[in-house]
Amino acid sequence: MFSKSKASPESVQTPAQRNNGNVRNNSGHTFSIIASDVEIVGNLNARVDLHIDGKIQGDVTCGNLVQGEGSVISGKVIAESARLSGSVEGSIEANDLVIESTARITGDVVYTNLTIAPGGQIEGKFRHKSSGGAPSIGRTTVDISKVADPLILGNASKVA
């Protein structure tokens, strides 16, 4: 008479499906969430993508990283792509890197593609991945002899 019919978990469609503690988004990629009340001491290596809102004291290695505004990472970050909104105290290496307006980065940055939103703060050196061991932009030197023909001053008959 007063019974309720409950849908079975298999029939409920949600934007993100849980799978072994991980979340699967609509595109089928699996990612893990480190909540704002979680603090990890030690290195974090993930085969899945990560969304970090908590605090990490150690290196973070993953495919794709999204960092929340209140998040703090004290260590190296290595990711295929990273969207940083919190604080990072350590070096960053990512092919596609987005520094949001709330991000505070202290460390060197190695990137392929870089976007910095107005207000994003970075204290460190930048190096494009294709440049190998080239010096950072702030310390670049140019050998002018390799850029242009030398300018010869002297007798007018010798000047071309």
UniProtKB/TrEMBL annotation:
InterPro entries noted in UniProt: BacA/B
Superkingdom classification of source: Bacteria
Region described as Disordered: spans on this chain: 1-26
Family: Belongs to the bactofilin family.
PANTHER family hit by this protein: HYPOTHETICAL CYTOSOLIC PROTEIN, POLYMER-FORMING CYTOSKELETAL PROTEIN
Protein name listed in UniProt: Polymer-forming cytoskeletal protein
Organism: Sphingorhabdus profundilacus
